[in-house]
Amino acid sequence: MQETQTENTRDKKREQILESAALVFSQKGYRLTRMNDIAQKADMGKSTLYEYFTSKSDLFMAVFGWLKTRYQVTADGFALNGKSAQENLSNLIQGWVASLVDMDVHYQLIMEFWAATASSEVKDQLKQAFADIYQTYREVILKVIEIGMKRGELKEDLDPEAVSAGVIGALDGIFLQAWFKPEMDPTKISNHYITTLIQGLSADPHRS
Amino acid sequence: MQETQTENTRDKKREQILESAALVFSQKGYRLTRMNDIAQKADMGKSTLYEYFTSKSDLFMAVFGWLKTRYQVTADGFALNGKSAQENLSNLIQGWVASLVDMDVHYQLIMEFWAATASSEVKDQLKQAFADIYQTYREVILKVIEIGMKRGELKEDLDPEAVSAGVIGALDGIFLQAWFKPEMDPTKISNHYITTLIQGLSADPHRS
Amino acid sequence: MQETQTENTRDKKREQILESAALVFSQKGYRLTRMNDIAQKADMGKSTLYEYFTSKSDLFMAVFGWLKTRYQVTADGFALNGKSAQENLSNLIQGWVASLVDMDVHYQLIMEFWAATASSEVKDQLKQAFADIYQTYREVILKVIEIGMKRGELKEDLDPEAVSAGVIGALDGIFLQAWFKPEMDPTKISNHYITTLIQGLSADPHRS
Amino acid sequence: MQETQTENTRDKKREQILESAALVFSQKGYRLTRMNDIAQKADMGKSTLYEYFTSKSDLFMAVFGWLKTRYQVTADGFALNGKSAQENLSNLIQGWVASLVDMDVHYQLIMEFWAATASSEVKDQLKQAFADIYQTYREVILKVIEIGMKRGELKEDLDPEAVSAGVIGALDGIFLQAWFKPEMDPTKISNHYITTLIQGLSADPHRS
DNA sequence: CATGAATGAGTGTTCATTCAT
DNA sequence: GATGAATGAACACTCATTCAT
């Protein structure tokens, strides 16, 4: 257990770098960030970064992974519980909204990753990663919808694929607009919007 | 009229540069595009670009403007016509979806601008520009909804701000997901989704 | 003929770089030479070098080619003339010695290339190039010796391969030693040595 | 005797480093060798190397010394024995050739040192060292020749300086060529060449 | 007006060396 | 004594921009 350097120490330093990198990437963007900036922020020599990450883009991706882990929304168990599809949908979505809100200071950083999917060296990796994240959520929602349809809670002529994609998309899009217009309150909008949507989905629209 | 160069010629050349730049930015991304690439594609000397645009970012912004003009969805007249809110919404949305679909080859380019709002030198200009675009659309939808509510076509407890933001957001988000997952058909999903949504919005849900 | 830049100008500039590079490489060695040094010596911006050569090692190899051309010993016609093998050998060797002496200021540079065959990125290219040069010379000498043997001018039990390699080797080795010990006069030593050697080769040793 | 570390241990470790360094320098060349590589090969920590050698170049020079010691050709006693100059020359040369052949795996390494005389930080030290080695050999051969001339075994009009330099040079040059052209057999060529040369040197050329 | 040529500021990365334990 | 960790100096190369023609 007594290694040359405690794993603890190493992990701590790694975390320190990750956090500094997150901050600087967030402020300056990937392209405009210099390794030096990160090193300074992390209060260490530039080359030390290379002891922990092989390159700038490696570090960038590591920050992505770090963020992903930090804000992972666990969507397990939603499909199979006893609640109604409406309730489950609402909870699921609220969970996701909460996580988006929670990211708060990291939203700029997420934009950065998002932006990097358009060009950058890591565009393919990132695109895949994003695709996976979306895929996961879409599948959970999909299942909830399908079950709701079977149970007769939701309309029978829905296209579950389209709806799940739309729900995810709507939330994303709302937060995106809030990103462009800071005075918007994406949480409030999301909630209201979702309520309305669920009514559109429900078999018996008089039900809340 | 007998200038050193006809305005005509100058405009033509400008257009030529713009198109070449659009193409190259789209293929390589802003960051990875070299002025040289654009010059070659436009079949002219590198320095000539600087006769028409002061800098790379200036050119980038010019391409943005060019694209914006090209795909401007005219939303005029929707609010005041005699159709129902549902119809107007549907048309509006279909118009926008059509324009998104129409962009087709330029979608990658749009991503590029989108990405540039996150960092880049022109981030502020672009952010503002996007905000304006969204704002414009939101306002039209907003108006349609408000009128629909007044007329009793739509539910009376809607938050028009939230709904309009949500509608725009949903469409954006759907196309975004399709960008990550090419086998998706964003048009079909949008249409289905919108139908469902409008039902949620309608005062009398049995109406289509 | 009136191109964007006269080929003349371009060649002149190229030559200028080559000469500056030759000088700096010669003084500092490949490894210790910075592109900047060369640019300064050539009185131009660093990046201009890259307009003419793709990389440091490319430039290095170009200097090698330049030097090779400059000091190419033409060994043509030696085998087939009417002179005796002894005379031809003597002339050939004197020609080579003369060229070695002529290199004079470039000897250090040649060492540099020689050294680069041991490691460096271009080691393989250079090794091949040197091998070719040696091969060429060896073959001329070989032919002269074979003809001399046929004619009975040289001993009949010679191994022409061995002798030609030895002759070339001896000259090289002598200059090498002079490189280590500047007070040596490699020309004098070569001449004397060769005289002795030719006597050893001759069928009738009493002949000069 | 009970030091903090037995001299024995220390020497052993030093040797271990030296051997590892020799190997790595030989494979990658001075410039491309990293201290890390050597440390790993020697199965110890990087910094430990600095306990035994002050710097990379110091280590390089130490390897040179190590190699020099290992392959030192003892030329003592050749001048003063009862054998003929021809025999002594032949033996001397064969001894040297044997040592060159013996070096075998180390030939690449020798090239490396040789190359380092051209530039590198240690160029002056190395140049001096090589000069000394050559000087030593030349002197032995010189003496043998002078005695041979006095005894009338060798021609009387020889320039002993030139001949000794030439002999050494020839051998070096032959091995050099074999280095460039691996299919050559330098031993065979050396022997043949030397035989011929000695005949040229001999007062009575009919003697073998 | 058009442009080829020239440029220098800017940066990721390597690696010998030092230092704290 | 031994070593893993930390470091900063060093450097090739790129590319937006300018300039001379």
UniProtKB/TrEMBL annotation, chains A, B, C, D:
<keyword id="KW-0238">DNA-binding</keyword>
<dbReference type="GO" id="GO:0003677">
    <property type="term" value="F:DNA binding"/>
</dbReference>
<dbReference type="InterPro" id="IPR039538">
    <property type="entry name" value="BetI_C"/>
</dbReference>
<feature type="domain" description="HTH tetR-type">
    <location>
        <begin position="11"/>
        <end position="71"/>
    </location>
</feature>
<dbReference type="Pfam" id="PF00440">
    <property type="entry name" value="TetR_N"/>
</dbReference>
<dbReference type="InterPro" id="IPR009057">
    <property type="entry name" value="Homeodomain-like_sf"/>
</dbReference>
<dbReference type="Pfam" id="PF13977">
    <property type="entry name" value="TetR_C_6"/>
</dbReference>
<feature type="DNA-binding region" description="H-T-H motif">
    <location>
        <begin position="34"/>
        <end position="53"/>
    </location>
</feature>
<dbReference type="InterPro" id="IPR036271">
    <property type="entry name" value="Tet_transcr_reg_TetR-rel_C_sf"/>
</dbReference>
<dbReference type="InterPro" id="IPR001647">
    <property type="entry name" value="HTH_TetR"/>
</dbReference>
<keyword id="KW-0678">Repressor</keyword>
<keyword id="KW-0804">Transcription</keyword>
<protein>
    <recommendedName>
        <fullName>HTH tetR-type domain-containing protein</fullName>
    </recommendedName>
</protein>
<keyword id="KW-0805">Transcription regulation</keyword>
